[in-house]
Amino acid sequence: MKRPITVVATAAFLAALPLTAIAAPDIASRMVNHPAADQWGIFGTGEKHELVKDTTVRGGAALQVTSAGKGANPWDIQAGISNSKAVKKGDVVLLAFWGRTVTPGSASVPAVVQQAAAPYTRIGEQTLTLTPDWRLHYVTATADRDYPAGTLGVSVQLATGAQTVALGPVFLLDFGPGYDPKFLPRNIP
């Protein structure tokens, strides 16, 4: 049943974007991944995760990930996806995902757009603050080279403390070369 989640998640994402960010009919052509919450992959050890029903997030499902504590590196536990379509050098990409904390009150987590294999070259990153409320979080990047399908990854790094986070639909959007990032949405402080 991925189709209804995709349609609902896409409609919700569009509703949250500023009007200057993108024309509505164009959003589907910019997606380079499947946006449903069940598309997140979990990497690392010392975590527990499960897909749960959650009617308070767009799409009605969330991936809950629990970390027992701070790791040696924030990426010791991470949730991620990779591109299912090619991204070309110079393309401006936007990572957008629904996220919140389940426990504690808030959590600081890095979100990264990077090469999906070693040396994991980062092309965009931002440390985000997740709160108990569902919010869309964003990271903008510009491709430093061509990325065939499966070679550009995004991750939310969760080994930053003892916490449970919920991750909803995730979007990786390709706006092509020359797109001005100032027209893309930004995180609310």
From TrEMBL:
Keywords: Signal. Residues 1-23 form the signal peptide. Gene3D superfamilies: Galactose-binding domain-like (2.60.120.260). InterPro entries: Galactose-bd-like_sf (IPR008979). The lineage of its organism: Bacteria, Pseudomonadati, Pseudomonadota, Alphaproteobacteria, Caulobacterales. The keyword Signal applies. This is CBM-cenC domain-containing protein.
